[in-house]
Specification:
The chain is mainly α. The chain is 83% helix and 0% strand. It has one domain (44-156).
């Protein structure tokens, strides 16, 4: 008795491709998430936050603006916005100082957030080299755009 032939069509081999990609996703994603978790647990991100806050508060903005940068860097952008609202209401910072501090916090936090949140997923879907390239290009263009808009704002805003 002849064996039944496997079905042919667009879904043939789909499971094999899915399984291969899924295993690769797990192979990169889980170790990267574990490394990021350990880096966070060991205080690496806290250390980076302290260094960034010290550098910013001492040379670029008033001390009050450093809080906005730290909030934007450490927590989420909405925390920085809430702090900016409080400082604006108190008259401590101007609108321009607040806006620039929030943008600076976004620029500084971009690489850390990209590594923490985007690299594991990209490395699981694409090859590690392509994932790194996509991450660098996307975040590089984001930072460049923020810098150009900030310069325009400082000059004409």
């Amino acid at each position: 008795m002849p064996r039944p032939r496997p079905a042919s069509g667009p879904l043939t081999g789909l499971w094999d491709k899915f399984r291969g990609r899924f295993l690769r996703l797990l192979g990169y994603t889980i170790p990267i998430y574990v490394l990021v978790f350990l880096a966070n647990d060991w205080g690496l991100f806290l250390w980076l936050r302290k260094i960034a806050a010290h550098w910013i508060s001492g040379e670029i903005f008033p001390v009050e603006a450093a809080g906005l940068v730290v909030f934007s860097f450490a927590a989420e952008f909405s925390s920085g916005m809430a702090a900016a609202g409080a400082l604006l209401d108190a008259g401590t910072l101007t609108v321009k100082q607040s806006a620039l501090a929030l943008v600076l916090g976004a620029i500084i936090s971009t690489p850390v957030r990209a590594v923490r949140h985007q690299l594991p997923g990209l490395a699981g879907i694409f090859s590690l080299g392509l994932a790194g390239e996509l991450l660098l290009l996307s975040q590089g263009f984001r930072i460049l755009t923020l810098i150009l808009v900030s310069i325009a704002y400082v000059l004409w805003g």
